[in-house]
Design goal:
The complex is a heterodimer of chains A (257) and B (262). Helix content of chain A is 42%, strand content 12%. Chain A is of the alpha/beta class and 257 residues long. In chain A, the strands form two sheets. Chain A has a six-stranded parallel sheet. In chain A, strands 1-2 form a two-stranded parallel sheet. In chain A, strand 3, helix 3 and strand 4 form a beta-alpha-beta unit. Chain A is globular and about 45 Å long. Chain B has a single domain, classed as TIM Barrel, CATH 3.20.20.140. In chain B, strand 1, helix 1 and strand 2 form a beta-alpha-beta unit. The chains are: A alpha/beta (257), B alpha/beta (262).
């Protein structure tokens, strides 16, 4: 089974959202991707409880439109602690969402994020953390997390399952891979538009194939193509393309899609 | 048959490359079913004086010219570039050039860019322009080289009506004059596909409808980049077999074989 750990459905303020969502499923069909773990983000951030609840409601509805294809992440802004925790619990326990999506409202090692991690541990769901590391200040994302911060959070919560998003999303992927070496409870999402040769092999050498999870983040051919090109054994590709994430999502065996 | 119009040999200043010798690249090409590749020197991108890197490329590709097609890197702001260009053509047998305006300190609209493109054209050489070398978000702390503007490249192309251009590593063509229907272009040009989307936004399909499949050419960016993503774009592209063959090799071969006709 091939599972994309990082996908997005369209926000409904976009007039073509329904058609775009359908195109995403068609793209997955063409590339042999069985499931896409999806969230919807608000167009403007920081999000507020009303806007992130709306996004999660739309993802829940998409699961009805595309049965079995779009396991869902619950997106929240940890800056609204009570509302965020209520929303995560509701989405996981009542709706069967499979994880939590955190974006860039806060750096992931800020204390405001800790209650979200503690709840994710209790519910036995992973957190997909938006991340990237550039050698300059990313002014559009002043609270962008990087792999070093994800590793720090992982050391604070060794029982948490964290996914460091899009190693191929444009930052220095060699830095990212090295920063995660000592954080065994962090998985690395392979998604992104950058197709630099060697990234998958380097991640396998440093972290092990068991810690990589295939993702696209909407860069479909780039993401599937880099796995195809990678000079690693087929068994490792199978782990990366789906088996690792399948095991991660079924740790608790009480949720699923 | 697959012809890759966007490949390299050599070392890059800011990241260790693999498969970057002639033998190594040929093995990578064999593994991915790529028959021929237009190659230039990765070293030349950051050398002040590009010419030693062109000489190294000429030597590295000697004996492999049936598969590795050498392109010169020429900086039109550097002393005596005209001599270097002629040497690359006459002595090294290079069939095209690559221009790196951002890395070499000039703009496509500058007079020196036009002079270089015209001089190369007079020698029957193809003019290729990589819009980027690597994603700007992963840039080294010492450098900040923005992508080359497609509009500026379009202006250079208008100023060189007899030239033949390959635009490499570009994206966003539907919003550029180069990707819009009805444009009257005096020069020949090909758009390399490695960063174009085949699915979702489907930029490749949009370009086929607007300017025709005859404007597209396969390229991967290897060994900077994995070859499979670009190959996969062709695999899933919503296009006829004839259109895919044109992109896969025919358009590139036609441009490469027409060299010297001017």
């Amino acid at each position: 089974m091939v599972i994309d750990c990082h996908a997005h459905l369209e926000h409904h303020s976009k007039p073509t959202w329904a058609e775009d969502d359908r195109k995403l499923i068609e793209a997955a069909d063409k590339l042999g991707i069985d499931q896409l773990c999806c969230s919807i983000l608000t167009p403007q951030r920081p999000s507020n409880p009303e806007s992130f609840r709306e996004c999660n409601q739309w993802v829940a509805e998409a699961r009805e439109r595309f049965p079995g294809r779009v396991p869902a992440y619950c997106y929240v802004n940890p800056g609204y602690p009570r509302e965020a925790l209520d929303e995560i619990r509701r989405c996981v326990e009542e709706r069967g969402f499979v994880g939590v999506k955190l974006y860039n409202e806060y750096r992931c090692n800020e204390p405001v994020v800790f209650p979200v991690v503690e709840l994710a541990i209790e519910l036995r769901v992973p957190i997909l953390q938006h991340a990237g590391h550039a050698h300059y200040f990313v002014k559009e994302q002043p609270r962008l997390s990087d792999a070093g911060m994800v590793a720090e959070l992982a050391r604070r919560y060794p029982e948490a399952a964290l996914i460091c998003a899009h190693v191929c999303g444009g930052g220095d992927w060699e830095w990212t891979i090295k920063a995660l070496r000592g954080a065994p409870n962090v998985y690395l999402d392979t998604s992104g538009s950058v197709t630099d040769e060697g990234v998958i092999e380097a991640a396998v050498r440093t972290l092990g194939a068991e810690r990589l999870v295939f993702g696209c983040d909407m860069s479909m051919t780039a993401s599937m193509g880099r796995i195809r090109s990678a000079d690693i054994p087929t068994q490792m590709k199978d782990l990366i393309l789906g088996e690792n994430l399948r095991r991660l999502l079924h740790r608790g065996e009480k949720h699923g899609d | 048959m697959v012809i890759d119009v966007n490949a390299y040999l050599g070392e890059f200043a800011f990241r260790r490359l693999h498969h970057n010798t002639a033998d190594g690249l040929l093995r990578l090409m064999d593994r991915h079913g790529i028959d021929k590749a237009c190659v230039s020197s990765a070293n030349a991108i950051t050398y002040r004086n590009c010419q030693p890197a062109n000489k190294d490329l000429a030597e590295a590709t000697r004996g492999h010219r049936g598969r590795l097609i050498p392109f010169a890197v020429v900086n039109p702001t550097y002393a005596d570039w005209q001599h270097d260009l002629r040497m690359c053509h006459d002595d090294f047998g290079m069939v095209g050039i690559r221009m790196y305006p951002g890395w070499h300190g000039y703009a496509p609209r500058d007079g020196c860019a036009r002079e270089l493109a015209q001089a190369a054209t007079e020698l029957g050489m193809i003019v290729s322009i990589p819009i980027r070398v690597e994603d700007p978000r992963e840039r080294h702390w010492l450098v900040d080289v923005p992508d080359v503007s497609l509009d500026a490249v379009a202006d250079l192309m208008r100023a060189c009506p007899n030239a033949r251009f390959m635009i490499l590593e570009g994206i966003g063509f539907p919003n550029s004059p180069l990707g819009q229907a009805g444009g009257e272009w005096p020069c020949e040009y090909l758009i390399e596909i490695s960063r174009l989307s085949a699915l979702l936004k489907a930029e490749m399909r949009q370009l086929i409808e607007a300017v025709g499949a005859q404007r597209l050419a396969f390229g991967s960016g290897m060994p900077f980049k994995y070859p499979a993503p670009a190959l996969l774009k062709l695999e899933v592209l919503d296009a006829s077999d004839e259109q895919k063959d044109a992109i896969r090799w025919r358009n590139a071969e036609q441009m490469l074989e027409s060299r010297g006709a001017r």
